[in-house]
Protein: Kynurenine/alpha-aminoadipate aminotransferase, mitochondrial
Amino acid sequence: MNYSRFLTAVSMARKPSPIRILTELQQRSPPSLISLAGGAPNPNTFPFLSATIQMKNGEAVLFDQTMMKKALQYSASPGIPELVSWMKELQKKLHNPPTASYSPEKGQMELCVTTGSQEGLCKVFEMLISPGDNVLLDAPTYSGTLAAVQPLGCNIINVPSDQYGMIPEALKDVLSRWDPADAQKLGSGVPRVLYTIPNGGNPTGASMTAERKQKVYELAQDYDFLIIEDDPYYFLQFEKPWAPSFLSMDVDGRVIRTDSFSKILSSGLRIGFVTGPKPLVDRVVLHIQASTMHTSTFTQLMVSELLHFWGQEGFLKHIDSVVEFYRAQRNAMLSSADNWLKDVAEWHAPAAGMFLWIKLKGIKDTQKLIMEKALEKEVLLVPGGVFNIHSSEPCPYVRVAFSLSTPQQIDEAFKRLSALIKEALRCEELLRI
Ligand SMILES: Cc1ncc(COP(=O)(O)O)c(C=O)c1O
Structure:
């Protein structure tokens, strides 16, 4: 892979921060090293002394005075080493990426910690997307992605999808306007980036089959583009075995994967990960050096302590309990939907994640219905248009989340929604007479 061909001018111009390099060198050195180099403040002046974070199972994460000083101090831009190495092992166990054994230049698997996967995604987009580029994605998609990608001035090309995610034949059709032989030619317009949410898509709840992923990967090889696999709902898959990821198929080193702890450990701690070929992850780290410097040392240490205490087995056991909760929530929502919405709406049962994507029958656009009428009836949903590339285009869908409300609240909400839809349909009928 010729990675430099994918980089934007901004990313290409990034240089390692000399101070950050020294800081990282110092942190890897024995305590006998006397460093007058770093500009780090003296943690003895900080007001916090120690902390005990009580866990629900009665255990505790303890930050004694030494640990607290570390938690309150600057740390390495790629993430604290103990968290990075734990996560690398997890990625190897879950995805067994072919790139794990590659040399760095060949695209060896690398990983860095980011402040939520959103930071990672945003930096990956800025690294790879230049104004005028053609970028492939399957809309409707996560509004946070659109918010990060659209200002980059690229041309977003929608690849049709269904409940099983992006349709490879449709992608092939979209790509047929270019010649794969032109992929390396400057200015050929052949897309260099494809973005997708492979599990429990936000907003559609769609999950991509392994077969589709393989076909999309083959097209990526033919046209030499990178795949950005945004997978925050990977751990919220309701069926086992979990679907193989793009990372697990990545024989070329063309997949950049973002993971998130937001849905399983805490969204407020802001811990996410970028995993991908070293030459690209290193560029993301250069961007981190120049912006946040690193994700909060405190939250990284807190999570790292927990993970080392749990081990992989304890972590996966915790995931099982989270999945059980969301499965019950999903089933409750599906049964309420069956009770109240069968005549007026359509949906698919999501195989992962926390969303149901509902098409309201006979309603051309849900924007006004939700923003005005639904509020009056005290039920709030997201109008589907906000997830489209052109948000002003009419959209008959709404996104509902089964994460936070109780089954009783969900049932009541759908009762109200059903009444609302019926009322809207009656009004339309009257207008037609
Ligand atoms: C598809 C998708 N990607 C990325 C994110 C960002 O997650 P975080 O930054 O909390 O890891 C979200 C959050 O909802 C999401 O739905």
Notes: The chain is about 40% helix and 15% strand. The CA atoms of residues 329 and 404 lie 9 Å apart.
